[in-house]
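ARCHIVE CARD
CATEGORY: sequence design from structure
SOURCE FIELD: tokenized fold
FIELD CONTENT:
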């Protein structure tokens, strides 16, 4: 009896090992920026990739500033080395292994404001031209029909569906650690002049504001071959105000003028300071307002293997399905995850579990990097708020000396 059980166990291990060596199919759920980049990287390796997306059209007007660290191998966060030497070596090889056309495209998006729609359209074109397949339609909404995954045997299934992840809670119930950083009103618009801003400038642009400081992230951009600046400003608000403004559709500058006098007055002072009281340079027709809860979150468990019914599937969370961060850093971290995963996928040599462990460990370090960076931004914002209010006592309570 024991011999029979032993033979069955050995037979199962051998069959799983053989199946793992044969697994080179990838299903990517979600055709956003991270899913598309991963698809491009894998297609450059001639991997059999299928991408599914429930939405037939996406019109995303928001812009993001991708971090320059995406293509830097020696990643240091505030002087802290988070990655092991082996991880740094693999990170460098992953970056070096990218095709020049793709790495050049990503390089052109670093440290400047870029439309998410532009990023998606560019990556989609690259992915399709390399032979990638995208299946579109409501039937590919696996959140409604998870059972459809049974048709994908011997497959890596990469969940890039964002915050409302399809697989996260199926990997582990309540599979998310979520931390609220703050509630913000985000105001973006085009400024008809070149404007470069540092921390001292942000302080002076908020002079005369009474309660609501506008903290701008500034980047130059070219529109219609004219030099203009795309400005995104963050205004910290409380939860009650956030809940109230969530109900307003659409949220406009005129609404602030009529119903939110304190915010409107301080924003108006900021715009006066920004333009040296020549507010004709402010393109009010391009102004967009949105309220958001800025959260930092990550999945407790990122990978999961399914051997039921001879499926031999391996589920992986990536992008916002795995983690998200405030201050628009999520896509940058998702890109870093995709570049690293594509490299270790190419070099796994049939050892799937080792590859998944590597991915888990690497993304954990990315999460720590994201946390440190987010906390640093929040801390500096609090100092700036106190300085603008001429509250020396608050500044001394915020800073730590020795």
């Amino acid at each position: 009896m024991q011999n029979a059980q032993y033979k069955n166990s050995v037979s199962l291990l051998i069959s799983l090992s053989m199946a793992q060596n044969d697994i080179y199919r990838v299903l990517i759920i979600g055709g956003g920026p991270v899913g598309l980049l991963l698809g491009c990287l894998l297609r450059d390796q001639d991997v059999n990739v299928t991408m599914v997306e429930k939405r037939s059209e996406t019109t995303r007007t928001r812009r993001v500033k991708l971090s320059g660290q995406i293509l830097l191998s020696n990643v240091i966060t505030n002087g802290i080395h988070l990655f092991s030497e082996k991880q740094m070596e693999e990170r460098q090889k992953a970056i070096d292994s990218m095709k020049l056309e793709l790495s050049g495209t990503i390089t052109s998006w670093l440290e400047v404001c870029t439309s998410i729609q532009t990023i998606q359209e560019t990556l989609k074109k690259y992915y399709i031209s390399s032979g990638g397949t995208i299946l579109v339609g409501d039937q590919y909404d696996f959140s409604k029909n998870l059972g459809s995954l049974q048709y994908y045997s011997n497959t890596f299934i990469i969940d890039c569906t964002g915050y409302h992840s399809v697989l996260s809670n199926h990997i582990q119930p309540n599979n998310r650690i979520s931390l609220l950083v703050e509630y913000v009103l985000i105001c973006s618009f085009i400024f008809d002049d070149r404007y470069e801003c540092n921390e001292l400038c942000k302080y002076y642009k908020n002079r005369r504001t009474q309660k609501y400081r506008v903290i701008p992230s500034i980047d130059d951009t070219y529109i219609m071959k004219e030099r203009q600046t795309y400005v995104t400003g963050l205004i910290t608000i409380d939860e009650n105000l956030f809940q109230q403004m969530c109900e307003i559709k659409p949220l406009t500058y005129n609404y602030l003028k009529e119903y939110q006098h304190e915010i409107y007055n301080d924003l108006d002072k900021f715009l006066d300071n920004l333009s040296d009281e020549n507010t004709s340079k402010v393109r009010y027709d391009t102004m967009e307002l949105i309220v958001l809860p800025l959260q930092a979150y990550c999945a407790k468990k990122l990978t999961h293997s399914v051997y039921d019914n001879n499926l031999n599937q391996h589920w992986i969370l990536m992008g916002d399905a795995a983690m998200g961060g405030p201050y628009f850093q999520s896509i940058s971290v998702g890109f870093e995850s995709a570049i690293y995963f594509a490299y270790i996928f190419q070099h796994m040599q049939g050892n799937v579990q080792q590859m998944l462990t590597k991915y888990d460990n690497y993304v954990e370090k990315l999460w720590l990097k994201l946390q440190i960076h987010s906390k640093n931004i929040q801390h500096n914002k609090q100092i700036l708020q106190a300085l603008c209010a001429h509250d020396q006592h608050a500044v001394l309570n915020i800073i730590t000396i020795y």
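CARD ANNOTATION: DSSP finds 13 helices and 15 strands in the chain. Confidence is low (pLDDT under 50) at residues 1-21.
SHELF: design records, drawer C
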